[in-house]
Amino acid sequence: MSEILIEKLDSRVVLVKLNRPDALNALNIKTRQLLAKCFSALSEDKEVRCIVITGNASAFAAGADIKEMAGAGSIEMLLRNMNLLWKPVAECPKPIIAAVNGYALGGGCELAMHADIIIAGENAKFGQPEIRVGIMPGAGGTQRLTRAVGKYKAMKMLLTGEMISAREACDMGLVSEVVPDDEVLNRALQLAKKITLMPPLAVAQIKEVVLAGQDASLETALMLERKAFQLLFDSEDQKEGMGAFLEKRKPSYCGR
Ligand code: CAA
């Protein structure tokens, strides 16, 4: 069995499932290589409009695989170049929804934070417990988490390694929505379906501007927004969307 399972639910929504149940979906190198390959391919697949990533009932992912790291030295870790494997996920232009049940810890929490929307089950648990095994987050945990929840909530999680519940994560801005455990995947897929009905160029521009804008000055970010907004007025989908509104009918978007 492969470490990840990829299922095209219809031509527009793809479900990516982490599949190392015996290791609580710990992210070993093989899994990350497969994820990188998968996200590179999905980024280029013109049919795909939304990606849902999930684990199983016990774990989204319990972190990087500690068994593969325990004996490593710093030069070996440097040569592993893990950032190159995270890149295709981080730079994926399609919306990503993480459907989280169970543990999302360390690299698992970081993987969830690569998504654009996080749907969590009531019993999901989030955390950056790296400090408890003598290290610190290395895939965005100090940065994406701080941007999502602010310094004081992030520091508490990072410095104590304590897990937080899905409700706490939602209250602090780390999770988009909490639903009963057995509804997580359905809710994520429902949102994915909804996004596939939106104009793809607008979807892509929104994702690009939100991600690029959060690290720019407000003035620069607002300019990025303005330019993307203006650009969309040359799309067929803008004419279709506004035309359909005025004609009181449902729009049908073509992605041009
Ligand atoms: N790496 C490797 N194996 C892991 C793992 C991990 N991160 N997390 C769980 N497993 C394995 C366990 O070793 C165990 O396997 P065996 O049966 O072969 O011993 C199996 O999954 C089940 O785990 P537990 O028996 O520990 O299950 P539990 O229910 O008692 O505890 C848990 C669950 C609290 C999540 C506990 O497994 C745990 O603390 N895991 C480690 C969490 C962690 O520290 N994550 C951060 C890793 S470092 C990192 O992520 C850095 C980075 O990205 C750069």
With strands numbered from the N-terminus, the spatial order across the biggest sheet is 1-2-3-5-7-10
Number of strands: 10
Query: So what's the overall shape?
Result: globular
Averaged pLDDT, please? 97
| The top level CATH class name of the largest domain | Alpha Beta
Helical stretch tally: 12
Task: Report the span from N to C terminus.
Answer: 39 Å
Question: What would CATH call the architecture of the largest domain?
Answer: Alpha-Beta Complex
Can you summarize the main beta sheet?
Answer: 6 strands, mixed
CATH H-level name of the largest domain... which superfamily? Answer: 2-enoyl-CoA Hydratase, Chain A, domain 1
Give me the secondary-structure category.
alpha/beta
Bound molecules: acetoacetyl-coenzyme A
CATH topology of the largest domain: 2-enoyl-CoA Hydratase, Chain A, domain 1
Unreliable spans are: none
Number of separate domains = 2
Rg computed from alpha carbons, rounded to a whole number of angstroms? 19 Å
**Helix content class:** 40-55%
Order of helices and strands: EEHEEHHHEEHEEHHEHEHHHH
User: Beta-strand level of the residues, as a percent range?
Assistant: 15-25%
Brief overview:
By secondary structure, the protein is α/β, with parallel strands linked by helices.
